[in-house]
Each structure stands twice: as C-alpha cells, then as structure tokens.
Amino acid sequence: MKKIYFYLLALFTFQVHAQTYTHTETFDNAVFDSSSNNSWGSYGFTSPNGPVFYYEMARNASPNYPISGKGIHLRYSQASFIEITFPDGLKDIYFEYRKASAESYREKNIEVLLVANDNSTTLLGVTPTFGATNTLDATVHNFSITDINRVGS
After folding, report:
1. How far apart are CA 2 and CA 55, in angstroms?
2. How far are the Cα atoms of 7, 36, 72, 102, 103 from residue 112, in angstroms, in the given order?
3. Vertex 84 angle, CA 78 and 85, to 5°
4. Which of 30, 88, 116, 130 sits 20 to 30 Å CA-CA off 105?
5. Which residues have C-beta within 8 Å of that of residue 14, sequence separation ≥ 6?
6. Is 45 left (phi over 0), alpha (psi -120 to 50) or beta?
C-alpha cells in the first residue's frame, strides 16, 4: 500500500486520481473527539473508495477554518501529520490548504512524502511558503503533483 504523508499547520481538502478512479475527499466521514471540536488528538477513518486516513495532533477545522465545508486542522509541524494509504495506488494528487490561525506567524510549508511498502521515503513535493503573518489569512492555496503513477499493493 502507498502512503502519503502531509506535514503541515494548515487546513486542506484534496482530490486524488488513483489508478482506476478519481476520489474527492469531503471529510464527511472524518472522526474527531465528539466531546469537543477543540481537542487535539490522533484520529482516523476509512473514506469511500478505500483511502485510509490517519492524522496526529489534529482537530476538526470546521466551522472556524473551513476551506469548503469540512477539513482537518493540524497543530504544528514537529508532531502533526496526515497519513493517507491508497490501496489502489496513486496517479496524481491535488489539495487545497490555508493558514489555520492568527496565533502563528511563522512561515510554513507542506511536504508531501511517499512511503513505499519497503518503508523507503521519497519527497514528492513541497508547497510554496505561506502563513508568515500574525493575522488570520483565509487565502486558499492550491497544490498538485502529477504523474506519481504508483500502483497499489
């Protein structure tokens, strides 16, 4: 199975083109602490069509920082990530992201890593720097990586 890791302090929605279908994630099935949308934690869910999501040091981005409805808010780059397993492989990936809070004014990037079945890691891409202001910035950025062309397990 192919895993894609996102390391970021941002919110995002994404669309992937698997080998045989296109999957747009809405995060309607995303799982968070039901007692509070403000609890940072480790969560996961299986999306329709098979991608499996696991996210660490994350919380629900909705309703405070959504991009298009729902999203995942990651806390900080040292410990926060989203891991996605694509059992049918991965051809292309596209996602939207934005600064999630006015409290952080450090520059940010998102690294997209591919971890193969043998645990070897390949850096697929890095977003341009964003978020270096001490104000809330609702600008939605887009990032895509094409021609990944990895088959599933």
Report:
1. 16
2. 7, 29, 16, 24, 24
3. 135
4. 30
5. 24, 25, 93, 94, 95, 96
6. beta
What's the CA gap between 135 and 99, in Å, rounded?
10
Q: How buried is residue 100: exposed, middle or buried, by Cβ count under 10 Å (0-12/13-18/19+)?
A: buried
User: Given phi > 0 = left and psi -120 to 50 = alpha, else beta, which region is 77?
Assistant: alpha
Give the DSSP H/E element, type plus range, for residue 117.
Answer: none
Quickly tell me which residue has 């891991």 as its tokens.
Answer: 83
C-alpha span between 84 and 36 (Å, rounded)? 24
Bridge partners (DSSP) listed for residue 92? 17
Entry pTM: 0.78
